[in-house]
Amino acid sequence: MRALFAPASAIRDELYGAGSRRLARIWNTPGPDLPRDGLIALLGGASKVYEKLLRIDQARALANLERLPVRVISVGNISCGGTGKTPLVLWICRYLAQIGAKPAILTRGYGRSGKGMARVNARGESLYRQSAVFGDEPVLLAQSLPSIPVRVGRGRAESGRAALLEDPGIDTVVLDDGFQHLTLARDLDLVVLDSRNPFGNGRTLPLGPLREPVHHLRRADALVLTHSDHRQFDKTKSMIEELFPDKPTFSCRHGIVGLRSDFGFFPVDALAGRKAAAFAGIAGPEGFFDALASRGIDVCARLPFPDHHRYSALDLARVIETASGSGAEFILTTAKDAVRLPTEFRGAVLTADLQLDFGTDEERFQKFVRNRTCSAWNPRPA
Q1: Residue 30 and residue 275: Cα distance in Å, rounded?
Q2: Based on the domain organization, do 208 and 272 belong to the same domain?
Q3: The domain that contains 294 carries what CATH number?
Q4: N- to C-terminal Cα distance for the chain?
Q5: pLDDT in tens, 1-52
């Protein structure tokens, strides 16, 4: 009976969570092991319709291909949920700036309330308000790369032209989540795969997590496997190399390089052995919690929320209550979550600064990106 008198937001999240857990079980069950019931049959039929419409949409996009007068790099994936696209966009842009390029980022701005095209401004206003208008990932990108313009808009070619009109010095455009946006030609197509489970049950939406069939990865110029420190990595890498033997493949992991607060930046090792409560509204929050634990932090409470979740006062009260009840000395979250926190609460948490670590693949990946972007001064024919 308690649920009948619970706040509407709590009931909504409970129902959402139950539905998400059921779908996650289906998406992560190997295809041959899927149960033969009405729901699976219904989802399977919907997937066939989805694939047919996808083929029509992609053919239409390729027939109306547009090109920008600068080099274009796309970072994307083929599955729903987080694979590490945003950290790779950050890595690419920092590296481009390091070698003397002048990039801009184009993104759709998932979940934003604003309409049309706009440049993201992550300064001077509440990040909480900005994340609602532009989306959390665009605000995170703009906050992390203050000297690099970030623009949101459905049409990437149109957004790109607006970016070039505003700053003609831009020589490279980086598409965030651009693999499915086929109307804009690109000079380098990178696809990120989560090595822990890159394809789920191998089926397309809605029966599976795939936005496109696996064989569409042939379009990609290179594949980037994340979570190289996971026990499943070697098996996944062997499978990918067998499926796409001629495709350049690079490996990386998500590393926590430090913690941020209102008082500045300090090393994560400062919390080694200390108790902390962690919360995250991202795809695969357990990966974040495990990363904290791997650095010696005693994660005594773990609070997952739906991806892109906008935190209410009730949510934050629950975080504080859980942290207090577990004996936590600190509350930790991700940078993506931090931009969705009201200003008055952000000062009470520590934000983990995550970056990609390519390890022994770093020099090889830098050379690959450098060679492909330098040659793109003379773009490939559309």
Answers
A1: 37
A2: no
A3: 3.40.50
A4: 62
A5: 333 334 444 434 444 455 677 888 899 888 778 888 889 999 999 999 999 9
pLDDT(118) > 50 = yes
Do 275 and 225 share a domain, yes or no? no
Q: What is the DSSP letter of 380?
A: P
CA distances from 279 to 270, 289, 350 (A): 19, 8, 11
Q: What is the pTM of this model?
A: 0.91
145 and 293 share one domain: no
Q: Going by C-beta distance under 8 Å and a sequence separation of 6 or more, which residues neighbour residue 166?
A: 119, 149
**Contact status, residue 160 vs residue 106, Cβ threshold 8 Å:** yes
79 and 206 Cβ atoms separated by less than 8 Å = no
243 and 157, same structural domain?
Answer: yes
What contacts 31, CB < 8 A, 6 or more positions away? 201, 202, 203, 208
Q: Which residues of 288-314 are buried (b: 16+ CB within 10 A; e: fewer)?
A: bbebbeebebbbbbbbbbebbbbbeee
Distance CA 235, CA 238 (A): 5
Contact (CB, 8 A) for 193 and 76: no
CATH number, domain with residue 169: 3.40.50.300
Q: How far apart are CA 271 and CA 159, in angstroms?
A: 42
Place of tokens 């920008």: 68
CB 376 within 8 A of CB 188: yes
In a domain, 343, yes or no: yes
Question: What's the number of CA atoms in the CB half-sphere (13 Å) around residue 382?
Answer: 16
pLDDT over threshold 90, residue 276:
yes
The alpha carbon of 261 is separated from its chain's Cα centroid by a whole number of angstroms, namely 23
Number of independent structural domains in the chain: 2
Cβ-contact 144, 353 below 8 angstroms: no
Instruction: Report residue 306 as tokens.
Output: 């739906």
Say yes or no to pLDDT of 171 above 80: yes
- Ramachandran class of 41: left when φ > 0, alpha when ψ lies in -120 to 50, beta otherwise: alpha
Q: Name the residue with tokens 């996971």.
A: 230
Residues 323 and 292 grouped into a single domain: yes
Q: By residue range, what is the domain housing residue 68?
A: 63-252+358-375
Angstrom distance (rounded) from CA 155 to CA 171? 19
**Residues 262 and 369 placed together within one structural domain of the fold:** no
What local confidence, expressed as pLDDT, does residue 381 receive? 41
For residues 88-107, give the mean pLDDT: 96
